[in-house]
Amino acid sequence: MPSRSRRKTTKTRSANSPAKAKARAGKLPTAKDFSAIAARYCEDVTTGRIPACKWIRIACQRFLDDLLDCASPESPYIYSKQKAHRAGKFIEMLPHTKGVWRQRREAIVLQGWQCFVICAVFGFLHRESGLRRCREMFLLLPRKSGKSLFAAAIALYMTCADGEAFPEVYCGARTLRQALEVFTPAKQMVRIQPALKSAFHLQIWSGQLLLEAGGKFMPVVRDPGEGQSPSCYVMDEVHQHLDDTLISCFRTGCAAREQPLGVFISTAGSSIEGPCYAMVEETHKVLDGTFDRPELFALLYGIDEGDDWTSEETLRKANPGWGVSIFPEFLRTQQKNAIANARLTNSFLTRHLNVWVGTDSAYFNVAKWNALGNPDLKPEDFAGCPSYLGIDLSSKIDLTAVVKVFKRTGDDGKSTYGIFPRFYLPEDRVNDPALAYYAGWEKSGYLTATKGSMVDYDLVTDDAVQDIEQFAVCEIAIDQWNAGSTINRLAKEATSPVVEIPQTTRFLSDPTKTLEALILDGRVEHDGNPVLAWCIGNTVCHEDRNGNVKPNKPKDRKQKIDGVVATLMALSRALLGNGGEPQAQGYFTPLFI
């Protein structure tokens, strides 16, 4: 009896194993060549058979080039098909935990792009040490691409089968609920697949998975404190992180590990000042060859500038899980709703096309604004055109904006507007670790740091006077708040009249609506200053019962709109201008003429 019982148990487990289930369904060959699938996917992307954005095409070509380079004995790296396949085979033994796939008791089947990830991360090794080249992987994927399940599977592999002594694997997030998006599927996989639990002697606890021989996998929220030595850490929905405190803690904790792995997964978000957008910008520089970081593997799925977001081809381009992890009809419905309702557009662009649009309810079309940027554009390109200066002076410790707006009228009578901003911030704020994005902008020349803890209004005024003289500014538009001394100086030193623009709906509605229309019509040119783009994305508007609108700051006080306010004030005067003569009439209140 005991032996028959054991034989019966063994037979039952074998019959219900994921590998047997897949073999019965005929979905996989008995020996799957993950490397060949990955290479074929990359070839299909680079040749255009699979639609993909610029950054995916570059990443695929980089993988194919690396495979060729590894064949040379002079390369510092080798490619181990065995290591890549070991990870792929482990993951494909794991069960699905949600939806119809769970109902049908199906095991995970890696798609082409996922095979690409696994082979790129686990296949390339240092020739001398045999250790992994990849230390960080960054996947930017639209919603419902199966990223949390994929990350959970990788985390389980790193816990059980990577070969690390006493592994410590963490999934970190701002909230416990978000951390559990990765940890819970991993725990469910162990429960659903008893063979996994017994093979690796796993103990299931409510808040962690423990290895009998030593090692753990657990969620971590906010600041984990000191003492962790992660062999792998997973950061889910990185765009929700306000700062890089948790990321830095994990990175520094890896110092005692020979080949740690950081896994960053996210969709695009509504805040470009957080660590996720900084990672996107850094990844762009790695992929285009500006930075050399061979230890980073990244896939940034999305769309290219100029793509028609209303087309189905664009949907396919941004969503690698099309027809597999996400149903096409769902995406088509979301797209139709976004086309019909402008207020749903930004949310659709962010969640399903991975476009960074500033804030979920942003008033302006940020994608279109960014597409109109030209880093080579200079104010001198508008020499001879009427120009207007908008000045938004902040409190002494906050962001101050000065924006030049030029009006160029074509032969067809239509006007195009050139917009060039300057930004100022006290160096104490620039150097604040919690506001690290300011330091990046200052280093790149998009922001001026003034000495001390307060904005140097004298420097702001000096620069404004220089602009007024150089470009023969027609009028200076300014908000009187905090501007008493500046207005007095401009009245004495500037040759242009100063006009007060009260910050009310009555005075800002028309230029706000006009700027929105100009952006959509492509009649705006700017130099691509990212601080102004950030302000554009942060701008939300209040609409009164008469249809008038006024830009408002978002609820998050860290998000600023000063650049937009200065732009609107200058634009309001440009719209009234008659080709260069100062205009004091209308409902604006001229302070000095």
What keywords describe this structure?
single chain, 593 residues, alpha/beta, Rossmann fold, Nucleotidyltransferase, domain 5, 3 domains, 8-stranded mixed sheet, 23 helices, 43% helix, disordered N terminus, disordered C terminus
Tell me about the largest β-sheet.
Answer: 8 strands, mixed
Task: Indicate the proportion of strand residues.
Answer: 15-25%
The CATH architecture designation of the largest domain is 3-Layer(aba) Sandwich
Rg from alpha-carbon coordinates? 28 Å
The first-to-last residue Cα distance is 106 Å
Residue share in helices?
40-55%
In CATH, the homologous superfamily of the largest domain goes by the name: P-loop containing nucleotide triphosphate hydrolases
Summarize this structure briefly:
With 593 residues, the protein is α/β, with parallel strands linked by helices. The longest helix is centred in the first third of the chain and has 17 residues, at 54-70.
Write the layout of secondary structure elements.
Layout: H1 2-15, H2 18-25, H3 34-46, H4 54-70, E1 77-79, H5 81-92, H6 99-103, H7 112-123, E2 124-126, E3 136-140, H8 147-160, E4 168-173, H9 176-192, H10 194-199, E5 202-204, E6 209-211, E7 216-221, E8 232-236, H11 245-253, E9 261-266, H12 275-287, E10 296-300, H13 312-318, H14 328-340, H15 345-353, H16 366-371, E11 387-392, E12 400-409, E13 415-426, H17 427-430, H18 436-443, E14 448-450, H19 457-471, E15 475-478, H20 484-493, E16 498-500, H21 505-521, E17 524-526, H22 530-538, E18 540-543, E19 549-552, H23 562-576, E20 589-592
Parallel strand pairs: 3-9, 3-10, 4-7, 4-8, 8-9, 11-15, 13-14, 13-17, 15-16
Antiparallel strand pairs: 1-2, 5-6, 6-7, 11-12, 12-13, 16-20, 18-19
